[in-house]
Amino acid sequence: MKKIVLFASGNGSNAENIIIHFKNSNQGTVVGVFSNNLHAKVLDRAKSQAVPTFTFTKSELNEGKVLEELQKIQPDLIVLAGFLLKFPESIIAKFPDKIINVHPALLPKYGGKGMYGRHVHQAVLENNEKETGITIHFVNEHYDEGEFIFQKAVSIENCQSADEIALKIHELEMEHFPKVIESLIE
Ligand code: GAR
């Protein structure tokens, strides 16, 4: 059984969807949810699915505490699912090709620092894009620049608001993210 660790900073709908997906899998299981936000809804979601949680500060992320925890767990895959801090190079170096992220746009468009969640959808709306989508990619030392694993586009020609775009992205993430994770751990 492959060990999957999730990192999330807020709501955690992706994290919960991944946890539930792998409850019915003989390939992998989610062994922990890590969050930098003590009040994140993702922590309640993890607890209600009986998945252990670990919270940390930004300095604990960057100064070794999180790496120490990960080395105890020895995960096969680290999944950033709505994780909003920059992932430290010290951890990336120890888990080469084992850290992935989902981004709610068709990278390289709408990526980089500050481009997360609603900010992405608002920018997409303001630029009158006809389509947007999701990108799942490996994590390297630059925000949203690691090698692409998967992209899926969706038409947003009928969308009038960032919320409507967010809903379309949410649907893509719910459908595809767990399957991409599964294909990576197979
Ligand atoms: C997701 O849409 C994810 O793609 C995005 O945050 C949302 C988290 O939702 N991630 C980023 O913007 C990273 N740059 P969730 O907490 O409900 O899973």
TrEMBL record:
Any single biological process term in GO: 'de novo' IMP biosynthetic process
Limits of the Formyl transferase N-terminal domain: 2-181
Broad class of enzyme this protein falls into: transferase
Single GO molecular function: phosphoribosylglycinamide formyltransferase activity
Keywords in alphabetical order: Purine biosynthesis, Transferase
Protein family (similarity comment): Belongs to the GART family.
Protein's UniProt name: phosphoribosylglycinamide formyltransferase 1
Annotated source species: Flavobacterium indicum (strain DSM 17447 / CIP 109464 / GPTSA100-9)
